[in-house]
């Protein structure tokens, strides 16, 4: 897979129908949401519309392959009290990310690794992130492998042992503060 064929752009209101389609797909909801609760277009508009408009401090993006939408990504700054519950000092700027590929036929093709690597570069260039974290289901070995290939490490089990908190340092200053 060619890196140049994959691009990440800010999500806009025209993407909401595509997002609703992805979030009603069982293969996507298996690890991003709840298989028993597919999203309607109205639910997607209510949740992601304020993010698109900048009313919520979660920044959403669409991933494209050769110009066609194939996935979703978002980042957000972790609140200091929350990052301290994970054991990270308050002097670090910690960002969280979430992502998924919305087209199941594109699973297991290396796209997730390309997406995440490109996204991390963008976050480092546009924010003050010292550390990027994510959580993934322990039952999702495909995602865990992807994140480890991108430089994330398993830090601790969270969500009553159902998920891994994974982290990646984004600056040399971070290692001195951990």
Automatic annotation (TrEMBL):
Keywords: Acyltransferase, Antibiotic resistance, Transferase. It comes from the Bacteria. The keyword Glycosyltransferase does not apply. GO terms for molecular function: acyltransferase activity. Gene3D superfamilies: 3.40.630.30. The keyword 4Fe-4S does not apply. Its EC number is 2.3.1.-. InterPro entries: Acyl_CoA_acyltransferase (IPR016181), GNAT_dom (IPR000182). Residues 6-171 form the N-acetyltransferase domain. This is GNAT family N-acetyltransferase. The lineage of its organism: Bacteria, Bacillati, Bacillota, Bacilli, Bacillales.
């Amino acid at each position: 897979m060619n890196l140049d064929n994959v691009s990440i752009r800010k999500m806009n209101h025209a993407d909401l129908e595509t997002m609703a389609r992805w979030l009603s797909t069982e293969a996507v909801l298996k690890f991003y949401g709840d298989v028993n609760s597919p999203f309607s277009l109205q639910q997607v508009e209510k949740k992601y519309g304020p993010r698109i408009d900048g009313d919520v401090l979660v920044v959403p993006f669409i991933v494209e392959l050769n110009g066609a939408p194939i996935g979703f990504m978002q980042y957000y700054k972790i609140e200091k009290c929350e990052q301290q519950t994970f054991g990270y000092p308050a002097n670090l700027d910690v960002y969280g990310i979430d992502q998924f590929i919305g087209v199941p036929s594109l699973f297991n093709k290396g796209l997730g690794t390309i997406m995440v690597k490109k996204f991390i570069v963008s976050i480092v260039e546009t924010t003050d992130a010292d550390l990027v974290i994510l959580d993934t289901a322990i039952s999702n070995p495909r995602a865990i492998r992807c994140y480890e290939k991108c430089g994330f490490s398993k830090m601790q089990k969270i969500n009553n042992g159902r998920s891994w908190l994974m982290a990646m340092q984004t600056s040399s200053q971070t290692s001195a503060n951990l």
